[in-house]
Amino acid sequence: MLPSPLSTRATPGHLHTHKWRGRIGLSLVASLSVLAGMTDAIGFMASGDFVSFMSGNTTRLAVAISDGDLGLTLRLIILVATFVAGNALGIVVSRFGGRRALPLLLCIATLLCGAAAWPYETQLPALLATIIAMGMLNAAVEEVNGLPVGLTYVTGALSRFGRGLGRWMLGERRNGWRVQLIPWAGMFFGAVLGAVLEHHLGLKALFVSGLLAGVLGLLSLKIPRRWQLGYMPR
Q: What is this structure's pTM?
């Protein structure tokens, strides 16, 4: 169940709307997590670098520094900084797009398709475009009915699920912790799909990620405007 900040005076109509806003929001989270997992798997298998999992790249950066590997250190610093820039750009595009998902997802789709079309001989620009896209993706959904969610990383989701499980074992009955498995499951399924696609298409599998981003952007037009405002960062 989703957490419900509604008061006990909420009418049946408000409760119905709240429930459906949560269901639609979590469906969007699951779909975007599939996109993130697929893209991260494709990028990792094609380049050896994570394109959305910056915790992994941060650990690799620390190891590279301790090993004195200046080339890898510089590369990983660029990747992490690019991801941060992508998150910032996602907020800017979201604001200029009226906090609607469509403009943001179309920009992401363009970046992913551009990365897929980039010549194999110079892979780094394609990698950076993909990382920017994954950073921007985090501006598509930030919370659902007050429940924080992550799209391109699932450590937080698993941590919140584990803490919720511990409280449940102690007899506490708080809502919302079970749904933290939704982004994890979406990313896992997407990563499996991305790995299969990369085996057959290589980096050009990013065309599939770009297509999915575009389709999800078009589907977001069906989501009521006021709901989208509640999902996206303020």
A: 0.87
